């Protein structure tokens, strides 16, 4: 057997295997150094073959595989870190982050339920003075006043229930206008806002039921006021964050598997065709099969006629 | 690609790893291609350091990105390495050569200065040369 031919075949096979393993490296490393690395490995193969023969090739592979594994992990780690922390458009991402932080400083969206209760235009001062009603309206959320009001009005509702309904911070807005008391309850939950607002109004409405205190009468009116502006702001922040994510390296992190450069048959089975098409369109990770086949043919011809 | 560092404090990059130090030493006297660097390092270290492709080109990539080394086209030279037994040259493709930059030279000088200080400290403590404690160095004899 021709020793030179055997050497060439062994080296060719080793180079081919090493070239296949190069697919595991990140795309940037492959683009910049794949040919050089394969050629360097081929040179080492020839050297070992000439000095120690097949045994030298085995020893070379025994040295090369751990080297490949560790450098691969290092490059992959570097690539992932760069993808995560060095997005393609850092200024845009920074702008989005600033806007998001500013918007995040706003409280979450709240719903406001307003309950209006008609008041007798000529209140009977001996039952509840305007001052007392005003006090209830303005300070009803504080415990001592609430308990005092319960006693003064002889409400059927217990103090605990009243405190729950008019708990501290729950009553966001109270308007006193002659002839009507408006309770507005603000909450994150629309149903909670409506319920508490109705409960607060029922405290007044119950006076009418007793027939003893004709101070407040009329149907309960509930107005729900969603805070549209805040909804819009949060929707905007969501859009901005989505844009920020898309411009960052996160999609590249998610698609790290694609960058492994799997053979097309395996890749087609593993990867959604539509997404793959998009990736190819953007020329991100995937080399076309035709180009790969062409390069392979050139490589074979070069070895054959060398 | 990350921007190249062309200036800065070389001390910030110290200490260098043994692989990087040996690559910089290999490029100190002349520009070389990857295989030339590997052979030079192996011969200079008596075969104790054999750079695999991943280690060599991973380090070169970082050195290029850091501005310590730059890639240059293959210079026109007589093909002296076409001798018997030597690796075959790919005539159809030009090799990529690597050259030390000014910043790379500064970093190498800083690292060598650091090593010199280490050796001097070891000498002051009588630990160097390691043949025996308190043995004077050859220069003092």
Question: Could you explain the architecture of this structure?
Answer:
- The complex is a heterodimer of chains A (306) and B (141).
- Chain A folds into three domains: 1-87 and 249-254, no CATH class; 111-226, Alpha-Beta Plaits, CATH 3.30.70; 262-306, no CATH class.
- In chain A, 65% of the residues lie in helices and 9% in strands.
- Chain A has 13 helices and four strands.
- A four-stranded antiparallel beta sheet of chain A has the order 2-3-1-4.
- In chain A, helix 2 (27-52) packs antiparallel against helix 3.
- The longest helix of chain A is centred in the N-terminal third of the chain and has 32 residues, at 54-85.
- Chain A is rod-shaped and about 100 Å long.
- Mean pLDDT of chain A is 61; it is low at 119-129, 139-159, 167-179, 207-222, 256-268, 283-288 and 302-306.
- Chain B is mainly alpha-helical.
- Chain B has helices spanning 18-29, 34-44, 53-66, 102-124; strands at residues 32-33, 69-72, 97-100.
- Chain B has a three-stranded antiparallel beta sheet.
- The chains are: A alpha+beta (306), B mainly alpha (141).
- The A-B interface holds A 18, 28-29, 32-33, 35-44, 46-47, 50, 63-64, 67-68, 70-72, 74-75, 82, 86, 302, 306 and B 1-2, 34-35, 38, 50, 52-58, 60-61, 85, 87-88, 90, 92-93, 95-96.
Distance linking N and C termini of chain B:
53 Å
Q: How would you sum up the global shape of chain A?
A: rod-shaped
Helix residue percentage of chain A: 55-70%
Number of self-contained structural domains of chain B? 1
- Under CATH, the topology of chain B is which? Arc Repressor Mutant, subunit A
Strand order of the largest sheet of chain A: 2-3-1-4
Spatial shape of chain B? globular
């Amino acid at each position: 057997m021709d020793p030179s031919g055997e050497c060439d075949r062994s080296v060719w096979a080793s180079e081919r295997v090493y070239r296949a393993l190069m697919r595991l490296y990140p795309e940037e490393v492959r683009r910049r150094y794949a040919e050089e690395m394969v050629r360097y490995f081929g040179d080492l193969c020839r050297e070992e073959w000439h000095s120690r023969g097949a045994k030298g090739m085995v020893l070379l592979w025994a040295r090369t595989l751990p080297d490949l594994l560790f450098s691969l992990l290092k490059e992959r780690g570097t690539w992932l870190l760069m993808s995560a922390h060095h997005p393609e458009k850092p200024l845009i991402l920074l702008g989005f982050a600033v806007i998001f932080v500013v918007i995040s400083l706003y409280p979450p969206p709240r719903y406001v339920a307003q309950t209006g209760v008609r008041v007798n235009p000529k209140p009977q001062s001996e039952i509840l003075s305007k001052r007392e009603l005003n006090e209830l309206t303005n300070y009803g959320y504080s415990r001592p006043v609430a308990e005092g009001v319960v006693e003064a009005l002889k409400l059927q509702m217990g103090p605990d229930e009243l405190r729950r309904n008019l708990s501290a911070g729950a009553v966001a807005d109270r308007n006193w206008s002659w002839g009507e008391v408006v309770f507005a309850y603000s909450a994150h939950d629309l149903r909670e806002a409506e319920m508490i607002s109705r409960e607060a109004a029922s405290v007044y409405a119950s006076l009418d039921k007793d027939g003893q205190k004709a101070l407040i009468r009329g149907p309960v009116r509930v107005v729900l006021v969603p805070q549209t502006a805040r909804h819009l702001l949060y929707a905007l922040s969501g859009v901005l964050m989505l844009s920020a994510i898309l411009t960052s390296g996160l999609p590249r992190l998610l698609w790290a598997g694609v960058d492994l450069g799997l053979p097309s048959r395996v890749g087609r089975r593993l990867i959604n065709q539509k997404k793959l098409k998009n990736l190819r369109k953007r020329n991100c990770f995937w080399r076309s099969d035709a180009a790969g086949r062409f390069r392979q043919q050139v490589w074979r011809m070069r070895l054959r006629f060398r | 690609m990350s921007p190249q560092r062309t200036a800065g404090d070389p001390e910030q990059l110290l200490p260098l790893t043994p692989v990087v130090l040996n690559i910089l030493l290999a490029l100190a006297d002349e520009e070389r291609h990857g295989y030339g660097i590997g052979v030079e390092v192996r011969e200079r270290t008596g075969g104790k350091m054999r750079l695999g492709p991943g280690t060599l080109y991973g380090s070169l990539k970082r050195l290029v990105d850091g501005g310590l080394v730059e890639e240059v086209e293959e210079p026109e030279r007589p093909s002296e390495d076409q001798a018997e037994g030597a690796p075959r040259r790919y005539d159809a493709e030009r090799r990529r050569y690597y050259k030390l930059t000014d910043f790379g030279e500064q970093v190498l000088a800083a690292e060598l200065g650091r090593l010199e200080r280490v050796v001097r400290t070891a000498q002051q403590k009588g630990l160097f040369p390691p043949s025996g404690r308190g043995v004077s160095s050859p220069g003092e004899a």
